[in-house]
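N-acetyltransferase
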Amino acid sequence: MTPEVVEAYGVRLRPFRIDDAADVVEGCADPMTGRFISGLPSPYTEADARAWITQGAPAAWAAGGAAYAVADPATDRLLGAVGLGQAVAYRGQAEIGYWVTPGARGRGVARAATRALTERAFATGTARLDLLTHAENAASQRVALAVGFRFEGVRRAANPTRGGGRHDLLAWVRLADDPSGPTPRQLPDLPEGGLGDGTVTLRRLAPDDVDLMYGLHTRPEVVANQAPPVPPERAAVERRCRLAESQWLTGEIARMLILDTASGVPAGSCGLSVSDPYAGEGSLGYALLPAWRGRGYATRAVRLLAAWAFGPAGLARLAAATMPDNVGSQRVLEKVGFRREGLLRGRLPGLAGSRIDDLVFGLLPEEFR
């Protein structure tokens, strides 16, 4: 590939110039950029920017990759960068990456630049592009999906963490002959950010919901109804909240809070996981804080979740399981139309090597009440 100027989708891709240095510093010295691109110098200085423009970018081109400045077509002012690296010519593959200056975020710049360079790469012979994201970088994952990349899996401990250690990367891939347009999602976003029936509202779990989730899921009666019956560590709950949006985007699980609509006060949590994507089956679960039990909130939440699962999420069947003695939860499921399907003996791990039975319920769309 040669460094020709590309104008498409409202952005200009051009070679870097020395007068881009100040904008490169603004973008690369930003804490969010440094968090998700751990290999950048820290602190990032003008000398680093000049070294990139005069040495780093030319080296990327010489190695068979690309290093474009992303500019505003009207002003030619730098908005970010997009490039190709890790090129393997005989495989026809490369890795695409990007960053955007703080002032240009939220304007679709990364999406436009990634789409433009992806099309150019495929037009010049590339067969496969990888896009690797930090597991907590949901904004970048949304870019990948919008440009037609598909989630392929987790590369464990694939990248060094700034300050020591290593972290996972999520691999998103697009092939030259993949369909154009955004990648269809197994778990779409909630309409207008939430589901509601006038009494109960469901919204996506967020990173700042840690205290609520830790308090709920360490309650003895909640712990008793999970397998194994061991309360989670706070660090595990923090990670669950931080990764909630990413796991939603990859189609693994949609985690939500249950809120009282009138007050906005959290009443509990619920979730829908895609247990068998090929069969179109999902599995749901829920838990309520004591003050909200016995008021129909769990039933309302399950109805909202089931309607969304059979509607926008396009699932064909829902499953739910309870401990055999959890009669209250079983009544909730039956009110929504779930039918008892059987007892799976010793299915789940218990304490000290013991096993726990699992009572399974199922729901089809025509049975939903």
